[in-house]
Design brief:
This protein has helices at residues 47-66, 83-86, 89-96, 104-110, 113-118, 133-153, 223-234, 253-277, 285-292, 301-304, 306-318; strands spanning 2-8, 11-19, 24-32, 37-40, 73-77, 99-102, 164-165, 171-174, 177-183, 192-196, 201-205, 241-244, 283-284, 321-326, 329-334. It has 336 residues and is of the alpha/beta class. The strands form three sheets. A seven-stranded mixed β-sheet has the order 1-2-3-4-5-6-7. The structure holds zinc ion.
């Protein structure tokens, strides 16, 4: 299923929806339509989704022509290297001959299954106490199996043809209009946004969403970068509209960005106070997780734990907390 909406003159939002038993999600991609148009993000993989995406682009061209305007889409690019943003790119290249643009960091993930898989690997000694080699090997084999299964289920697809590498601070000309690319790592390590200053429109990827909180989690999220980049986006001159990759457009961008900053700061404070209350004993990660989510089912843990891990890393790097070994666990406590 997908829908097409013209969310600003000549900017079309295509929303793809997945509705399966345990998985319900949607993603937006944007088409800046005109004589030299661009597709920003490319949605899910899977044969049907890809076919419908090509069909949607055809519909947009048709609509533009019915208004007596030209429409040629020439390029496509991802906002970042998460699977639900790049899995349609390969098909746009193969079926429509679109040129694929990406930054160096993004190209690594979207162009090869191996480097995409490698980017999942966690090696933070902050959360993983040293383990005997045997257990480490078992753990890696298990991780590999889980990743393979996930990629099959999610139909993650890669770009097999050439990728045109662009500088992450470049200015793109799209249909004669100027769109500034701005690197904003934080949610992922390769996020970029596109900003049209004259129109005050920001294509924001996952950096800020209207109703839900942007997911953060290791190994590629960084809370310090995330907060700094939200501050930076809030100061963009003339910012009026953010078009996010999930959910509906954000028409009160400055207020919404401030809410997101406040939320992250509150969560970080809650975490710090929890550790402060635990005193000299400190808490293991399991205990921290349980304090925030006492009733969470196990299958949700990997989604919910992300922000806690990222916030612990942030507090640790700021020097507010320390770690030590307690039995088989890492123990987190505030600096005495
Ligand atoms: Zn993402």
């Amino acid at each position: 299923m997908h829908s097409i909406k013209e969310v600003a003159p000549d900017i079309f939002m295509i929303t793809q929806v997945i509705t399966q038993k345990h998985l319900k999600s949607s993603v937006n991609l944007f088409v800046i339509a005109g004589k030299d148009g661009l597709v920003f993000d490319s949605g899910y993989g899977g044969r049907q989704k890809k076919r419908r995406l090509v069909h949607a682009l055809g519909k947009i061209s048709h609509l533009k022509r019915s208004r007596g305007e030209t429409c040629t889409i020439t390029r496509a690019m991802p906002s970042h290297g998460h699977w639900d943003h790049f899995s349609g790119l390969g098909h746009l290249q193969n079926a429509l001959g679109l040129e694929i643009l990406a930054t160096q960091k993004q190209a690594k993930k979207i162009g090869s299954k191996k480097s995409f898989k490698d980017s999942f690997r966690e090696d933070s000694p902050l959360f993983n106490p040293p383990t005997p080699k045997f257990f480490e090997v078992c753990h890696n084999i298990w991780d590999n199996l889980v990743n393979e299964l996930f990629m099959k289920l999610a139909k993650v697809s890669f770009v097999s043809g050439p990728i045109n590498i662009i500088d992450e601070n470049t200015r793109l000309s799209v249909n004669g209009e100027s769109w500034q690319m701005i690197p904003v790592p934080g949610h992922c390590d390769d996020d970029i946004v596109l900003y049209n200053r004259e129109r005050g429109i920001l294509l924001g990827g996952d950096i800020i969403l209207r109703r839900i909180t942007t997911w953060l989690g290791p190994p590629r999220s960084n809370l310090k970068d995330y907060l700094e980049n939200l501050e930076r986006l809030m100061k963009l001159p003339n910012l009026k509209l953010i078009l996010p990759a999930h959910g509906s457009p954000i028409r009160n961008p400055v207020k919404r960005i401030q809410e997101a900053i406040d939320h992250r700061e509150k969560r970080t404070r809650d975490l710090f106070l929890l550790l402060l209350r635990s005193g000299k004993r400190g808490l293991s990660f399991g205990e921290i997780f349980h304090a925030f989510y006492p009733k969470s089912p196990l299958f949700k843990k990997s989604l919910l734990e992300g922000w806690i891990l990222v916030s612990l890393q942030y507090l640790f790097e700021k020097g507010d907390i320390i770690t030590s070994f307690g039995g088989r666990n890492m123990i987190f406590k505030t600096r005495a």
